[in-house]
Write a structure and sequence with these properties.
binds 1,3,4-trihydroxy-5-OXO-cyclohexanecarboxylic acid; 147 residues; 5 strands; 5 helices; alpha/beta
């Protein structure tokens, strides 16, 4: 079965209570459950990583091909706007990455308007809340199935 890696960046462990007017009240566990349900319907297997540490995320992306993943769905969270290391990791591996954001980063503060990851990603979904993750997963599945 094809394996897809889902990476949640810093502070996303706090979803459910974190800035609920921006991010909603769905917890990270609930997001992962919804993703797992969709993955089952589509016949793919998911692994999840949440980390507040840039290096852990860089390591997971760097290992992704060796670990047997065919695509990555990543919400780099605040590292979206700061991390050359995560962008370089995404660019370094042959595994395509779909960047997702709960909020529409282009509608928010100016410092969020730039994604350092986007030029290395296969594509980006931003602004649809939990649906961003589900759309990102659909896109990843489409990519690995060659659609
Ligand atoms: C986010 C947007 C980022 O700007 C922010 O730092 C996050 C979450 C989102 O999902 O909307 O932590 O990636």
């Amino acid at each position: 079965m094809r394996k897809i890696l889902v990476i949640h960046g810093p502070n996303l462990n706090l979803l459910g209570s974190r800035e609920t007017s921006v991010y909603g009240t769905t917890t990270l566990d609930e997001i992962n459950q919804k993703l797992t349900r969709l993955a089952k319907e589509r016949g793919v297997e998911l692994s999840f990583l949440q980390s507040n540490h840039e290096g852990d995320i860089v390591d997971a992306i760097g290992r992704s091909a060796k670990d047997g993943f065919t695509a990555i769905v990543i919400n780099p969270a605040a590292y979206t706007h700061t991390s050359v290391a995560i962008r370089d990791a995404v660019a370094a591996v042959a595994v395509p990455a779909i960047e997702v954001h709960l909020s529409n980063i282009y509608k928010r503060e100016e410092f969020r308007h730039q994604s350092l990851i986007a030029p290395a990603a296969a594509g980006q979904v931003s602004g649809f809340g939990v649906q961003s993750y589900l759309l990102g997963l659909e896109a990843a599945i489409g990519l690995v199935n060659g659609q």
